[in-house]
Amino acid sequence: MTTRLKRMAGLAGAAVLGAALWWRRNPSACPYNQRFWVQAPHPLITRPRLREALAPAPGQRLLEVGPGTGYYALEVAGWIAPGHLDVFDVQQEMLDHTLLRAEQRGIANIVALQGDARSLPFEDDTFDAAYLVTVLGEIPDQQAALRELARVVRPDGRVVVGELFGDPHWVSPRKLRERAERAGLRFEQRLGSPLGYFARFAPR
Questions:
Q1: Average pLDDT for residues 144-149, to the nearest whole number?
Q2: Is the pLDDT of residue 147 over 60?
Q3: At residue 174, what are phi and psi to the nearest 5 degrees?
Q4: Burial level of 203, CB count in 10 A (0-12/13-18/19+)?
Q5: Pick the residue with more confidence: 82 or 35?
Q6: What percent of the chain has pLDDT above 70?
Q7: Average pLDDT, integer, range 143-156
Q8: Greatest CA separation for the chain
Q9: Strands 153-164 and 127-133, sheet pairing
Q10: pTM for the complete prediction?
Q11: If you placed Cys at 198, which of 32, 53, 82, 99 could pair as Cys (CB 3.0 to 4.6 Å)?
Q12: CA separation, residue 98 to residues 59, 90, 172, 174 (Å)
């Protein structure tokens, strides 16, 4: 019995590892029916640490790419009120969920738009800042997404990327910096360790 259990555990572990490797090689957004992953507490990449990296101010207009169900968005909206937070996601279900939670909490300064992060439907220099957390690795062309963020953020603005080790699409600090710099972003600061961090960039 013990040998059988060990064999079953080994097979289960191999299946999980295989699924993680497949997901890493085939970037895609976390499905809405698995939203519990984005609703769970985010160790190391906490809301206070995001606030420190993002430096939001009342009255600003910010962009979040891939808000999930609003884990960060609902807090950020409060930090910048009476400014506006645009949330942009490839999945309409995630946007609807975020807007419903915002309505339930009396938050009225979030605007949602569905689309592809590789081609943002905003004018140049629209936002004071933009951020995405554990989302970049889900985008098939990270370079294009970072280039778009550099385009829509004002020259004196900032782009913040959050990553957490263990996520199937985790992007290391080194790879992130290389890709961001090729996309026209200048590295400014990293908060946290390589296992969980926010990196702040500025448009060149």
A1: 98
A2: yes
A3: -65, -50
A4: buried
A5: 82
A6: 80
A7: 97
A8: 64
A9: parallel
A10: 0.84
A11: 53
A12: 21, 13, 28, 32
How far is CA 158 from each of CA 6, 89, 101, 188, rounded to the nearest angstrom?
Answer: 50, 20, 27, 9
- 61 closest CA partner among 152, 156, 161, 129: 129
Tokens encoding 158: 């900032």
Tokens 């550099």 locate to 150
* Residue 8 in tokens: 């079953």
Residue type, 52: E
In one-letter notation, the amino acid at residue 25 is R
Strand partners, 192: 197
pLDDT value, residue 204: 84
Rg (CA), the chain: 18
**160 - beta bridge partners?**
131, 200
Token digits for 188?
Answer: 């400014």
The helix or strand, by DSSP H or E, that contains position 63, with its residue range, turns out to be: strand 61-65
On whether the 2-203 domain is CATH 3.40.50.150, my answer is yes
Q: Match 């191999």 to its residue by tokens.
A: 14
> Which token pair is 197?
């961090």
User: Identity (one letter) of the amino acid at 39?
Assistant: Q
pLDDT digits (tens, 9 = 90+) for 77-116: 999 999 999 999 999 999 999 999 999 999 999 999 999 9
| pLDDT tens profile 116-141 | 999 999 999 999 999 999 999 999 99
Residue ranges of domains in the chain = 2-203
